[in-house]
Design a protein that fits this description.
The chain has 12 helices and no strands. The protein has 280 residues and is mainly alpha-helical. It has 2 domains: 43 residues; 209 residues, MetI-like (MetI-like fold, Orthogonal Bundle). Helix 6 crosses helix 8. The longest helix has 32 residues. The radius of gyration is 28 Å and the shape is globular. The chain starts with a helix and ends with a helix. The model has no long low-confidence stretch (mean pLDDT 78).
Length: 280
């Protein structure tokens, strides 16, 4: 058989495989590690099978206790001096709005300092990024616990928790938007002798405005959701009212608060979507 015949027979006997042997072993190692991690996690959380068996009956019993919903509780306080659901809702919206505004205002300078194409000093850039990472890595509930211990229970602690959590989120995305800005426009303004303020207002801002507005609105939407539960740790809003109702086993009022939270979240989603279409 000729050389061409041997080459053709080898090509016919060749079998295509998606992964090489090394890649298959690597995939097997990843799956094994995932299974090991899941097994260790199940042992760590100490799942009690007896509690799982009667969970459907417990859930059914909970829904029975929640019906009928105590609609009168929306405007009628539980006792003298207590908040109504309407007042707690207004506190929640105020916490989300003020926390977002303060967080965005504080995030803007850190976002500019964290952008490598704007801040050339490496140590300043590193410090700004450290602040953004530190504020973003701590959850809102942990920030709320800290400010409750600092200022005491109430809406002020919730507003500060929302603001500090928003700094890292907004600042990180803002710095990335600044770094992705078109350098040609900035170089043209620099060559024309434009000041730093003019370069920011007429070079960077028109490019990052859609991203910045979208980031701020998206963060406000998230803050509305988070401010609804911050009261569970004493940071004001609907969470405090719901926690008080749970402590006294007033499940019909808990159902009302859950429905209000759901309605607020849906309304904020619709509002943000409409504003993005009008503004951006």
């Amino acid at each position: 058989m000729s050389t061409a015949g041997f080459a053709g027979q080898a090509a016919l006997n060749r079998e295509w495989k998606r992964f090489t042997p090394v890649e298959r072993w690597q995939r097997f190692a990843v799956y094994a590690l995932c299974a090991l991690a899941i097994g260790l996690s199940l042992r760590t959380i100490e799942v009690i099978p007896e509690f799982l068996y009667d969970s459907p009956a417990q859930i059914q019993d909970l829904f029975v206790r929640m019906w009928p919903v105590d609609w009168a509780f929306y405007f009628t306080p539980r006792n003298t001096g207590a908040q109504t659901v309407h007042q707690a809702l207004l506190d929640t919206l105020a916490i989300a709005l003020l926390g977002t505004v303060v967080g965005v205002l504080l995030a803007v300078p850190f976002g500019f300092l964290a952008a490598r194409n704007i801040m050339r000093l490496a140590w300043v850039n590193w410090l700004a990024r450290l602040v953004l990472v530190a504020t973003r890595s701590i959850s809102t509930l942990l920030w709320a616990l800290f400010f409750v211990a600092l200022f005491g229970p109430g809406a002020l602690a919730g507003m500060c928790a929302i603001a500090f959590r928003s700094i890292g989120f907004v600042g990180k995305l803002l710095s990335e938007a600044l770094e992705e800005a078109n350098r040609g426009t900035i170089e043209a303004l620099t060559a024309a002798g434009a000041s730093w303020t003019s370069r920011v207002l007429y070079g960077y801002w028109p490019q990052i405005k859609p991203a910045f507005v979208g980031i701020a609105m998206f963060r406000w939407d998230i803050n509305v959701r988070e401010s609804s539960v911050l009261g569970l740790v004493g940071a004001g809003g609907l969470g405090m009212t719901m926690n008080a109702a749970i402590d006294t086993f007033e499940w019909q009022r808990v159902a009302l608060i859950l429905l209000v939270i759901f309605a607020v979240v849906v309304a904020s989603e619709v509002l943000v979507t409409w504003l993005r279409r009008r503004v951006i």
